[in-house]
Design a protein that fits this description.
The protein is α/β, with parallel strands linked by helices. It is built from 7 helices and 13 strands.
């Protein structure tokens, strides 16, 4: 935890944060903070600053922190991610890492090669999704929580996508096709760096031809992520890293 992220519900007064559980234990046992020490803090979806540890209640059960400043703007993500819903255990890791890498919106969608059972996983609960995203934000010292929307129907997603697709400066779909452009070459030419962009990553078995064509019909450009065949989560990380350079 490289930053303590708090919400309004953590405030006991306008300038006092009280946290318990995992966050309190981390401050006490990992950071070895003492009363009077300062730590980096940030309000969820708002600014970053500094807080002073003023009290430990019941040893490490809860910690009181006085807000000293909240003046630094958090990094604002400019990339949206379309992701064919992966296996639940993989999704946990992906949520944490994409929050660290910087994503504004995550669209988890049903494609033909996604198992229906994945959508019944408790990992998709609001509480679980938020927990894993927060872990990623804490790692990267940012506070902007990605918004997650789940689509169990591919056609419904595409219908909504068609309405909003014009707002993107850059739209990519990762797919192993002969005429695909290597994302590294696009980035080297600085054609999409820091722009309002969206990328679609398919399931382990890849997009079907109909799904792929649907994205092309919505003006997505086909890209490759190098010469190797990558796992879904690796493809997600590589693409986001390149696009956030």
């Amino acid at each position: 935890m490289n930053i303590l992220i708090f919400e309004q519900s953590d405030l006991s007064s306008p300038d006092i944060i009280v946290v318990s559980g995992r966050r309190a234990r981390h401050i006490f046992e990992i950071l070895h903070a003492k009363i009077g020490d300062t730590i980096k803090i940030g309000e969820l979806n708002r600014n970053i600053g500094v807080g002073e540890v003023i009290d430990f209640c019941n040893t490490s059960e809860s910690v009181k922190i006085k807000i000293l400043s909240l003046a630094t703007l958090s990094l604002q993500p400019q990339v949206d991610l379309i992701l064919a819903l992966p296996r639940p255990q993989m999704l946990k890791r992906i949520l944490e890492n994409v929050a660290s890498l910087g994503v504004r919106n995550i669209y988890l969608i049903k494609s033909e090669k996604v198992e229906k059972s994945f959508f019944s996983s408790p990992v998709l609960s609001d509480e679980s999704i938020k927990k894993h995203l927060l872990l990623g934000l804490e790692q990267s010292v940012t506070t902007i929580l990605p918004r997650v929307k789940i689509y169990k129907n591919f056609k419904q997603f595409i219908g909504e996508l068609s309405i909003s697709t014009a707002k993107y400066a850059v739209k990519f779909i990762a797919h192993n096709k002969a005429n695909a452009v290597d994302l590294r070459n696009i980035m080297a030419a600085q054609q999409c760096s820091k722009q309002n962009s969206i990328i679609a990553i398919g399931p382990e078995g890849g997009w079907t031809e109909n799904e792929f064509q649907t994205f092309l019909d919505n003006d997505f450009q086909c890209i490759l992520l190098g010469d190797r065949i990558l796992r879904v989560e690796t493809a997600v990380y590589v693409s986001l890293w390149c696009m956030n350079l």
